[in-house]
Each structure stands twice: as C-alpha cells, then as structure tokens.
Amino acid sequence: MSENEKKLFKDYFDENLVRRMAGMITAVHPQFPAEAFVNQIVPQLDVLEMKERSTVFVQALRDHLPTGFASAWAVLEDALGAELSGADGVFADGWHYWPIAQFIETFGLEDFDVGVRAMHEITKRHTAEFAIRPFLIHHQEQMLAILHIWAEDENMHVRRLVSEGTRPRLPWAGRLYAFIEDPSPTLALLEKLKDDPAEYVRRSVSNHLNDIAKDHPQLVIQTCRRWWADGSPERRWIVQRALRTLVKDGDPDALAVLGFGPAQVELTDFAVAPNPLSLGDSLQLSFTLQNTAETEQNLVIDFVIHFVKANGQTSGKVFKLKTAVLAPNQTIAITKNHPIRPITTRTYYPGTHQVAIQVNGQIVGECSFELLV
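Above: the chain's sequence. Below: its structure in token form.
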C-alpha cells in the first residue's frame, strides 16, 4: 500500500493484530492458547467487513479466555497497556482495544460491577462509548448514578464517556430510545460537563446537544440560550457547535441565540459555473451581498444544493460558507469552489440541480446548473 492510499478500518483487523493481541495476553497469562486463538480468527477475516471482523475476535476471546466474564476480564485487565496521555483514542495505534471493548459490550452484563470497572479502564485507553449502551438500556438508573460520579473523574476520557456514551443518536451505535424520548437525564450530565477544562470533553457535549436538537429543538435552544447568556468563550463555543444543525435548517430561534436576526440583504451577480458541469469537476459560486438595513448586521451565509435523486425529485443539502458583519450599505463579494466528486454517502444523478444562497436561514436567491454523470 502506498503512503497516498488510505488504509480501510477493517484492514487493521488482520493477522498482525491477532498475533499482537495473542502476545499481549500470553505475556500475563502464559497458559493462553495463542496459536489456537490465531488459527480460529485468521481464516475468517478476508471476506468480512470491520464490525464482523471485530466480532470474530470477540468470539475467539470468549472461547479461549477463562470461563465467565469476571474471570476473562481479570486476564484482559492485566494485559492492558498504559493509559492515554492526551486526547488521542483508537486511531492512535489502539486497534487492539476495539475487540476488548466489544467483549465488554457483549458479555459485561454477566457481572455488572466488573463490567462497570472494565469500562472505566478501557475508556482510558480506547473508548467505552459503545460498550456502555447495553448497561444504560438494562440498568439505566444504576448507570446514570455512576456517570454522575464519573463526570468529576480526574481522567478526561472517563468524563468524555459520560457525554459520548449517553448520546441518543451516537454514530455507529444503536440508538438510546429512552433518551430520545426524554433527554432530561443526559442533560443533567451535560450541565456538569459544560465547563470542563478539556476541549475533548466539551466537543462531545456539543455533539450530544446537537443529537438532542434533532428531536427536542426548543429544549436545546432554551439550554443554549441560558448557557450563552452567562457563559465563557469556551461555553459559547459549545453552543455554536450544538446549534449547527438548527442553524443550517434556518431555525430563527437558534439563530437568535447566536445574534443573527432576520436578514435584510440584497443579492446580486449570483452565478454558477461551469454549466453544464461534469461529475468530478468543481462548481464555482460567485455573488455579492449588500446590507440594506440601517444598522450593522451579523450574517451567517450558507449555500444549498438541491441534488437530483433516483426518482427525479430533489433533496437539499446545506453547506457552510462564512459568517460576516456588514455595516449599513456595505457589500461583500464571495466566491466558492465546491467539488462535485464521488463520495460514499451520495450517489449523483444527471439533471437540473438548483443552488440557493441562504442568509440567516432565509433563501435570498437561486440559480441552477446541469450535472452530467
């Protein structure tokens, strides 16, 4: 693999990782059947994707470690390496911890107290944001009580877990429907973390609030309004990130929290090029905005592309452009190059695509281009 090629996550779960884990365990538990562990896993890997590969590791750990979660964890705990010193996690050479965390997720409920201790240890080296979710589903009150203690833990990774592990819509994880319906238990945790000294933790708080905003926008707006009013710059940074989806959607209350009122602007010279545009090219947007109000305005400027779907209908996607402060009658000229290239999360279809300029949540002008695929 050349250094310009990006290694797929699944490719970290290879024979080298199997042997690394076997050596790590054998060093503290000499009777561990290392070769049987390797021979069980390696032949299965090639045809599997990342999650399935990790599951093969988990089953092999179950088969070859001492019986029962508590006994198995006693070995794995002895095999753990040093705690992380900074905010790096799994992507800093920590892939061998992923199956161990999944082992806790899969079997940790066999012994609640040992499982909780296991999460506390693994999250200081990797993450327990997935492992903790079965504990929250089956033992919500017990786990929440523990998380209120962990919110004051000296280790930033443990404090981050309090927010990240309880996110109702955590990517790659099953949803926590109880918290989607009623987010008040996790909001109480976020209140303890909103002024955390670590940006790593505060970023998780902002992402958690952004999750909640998808189901309870007014609750998040009320929370952010309060945090903004008496907050430090760090807390206001949380608010800005927490409201990002609502701001993209043009929610006037969310925009108002951040100081953006109804836009009074005039859009001129709006054009897109090239037209038509071929897949793989960049779309250039250019336009001028003028403040037509008699007072200074804070503006959040976005653009929206309405992509053609397979059925011929269109679906809008908002992209960030910039924020600006314009004095009365002041103008600003903006140019933006936006690549239209293949990505894993979107299939492009040919046809007429609309492009709109959005200012403070309001559409102020539109034009179109033809996409050739």
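The two ends are 30 Å apart (CA to CA).
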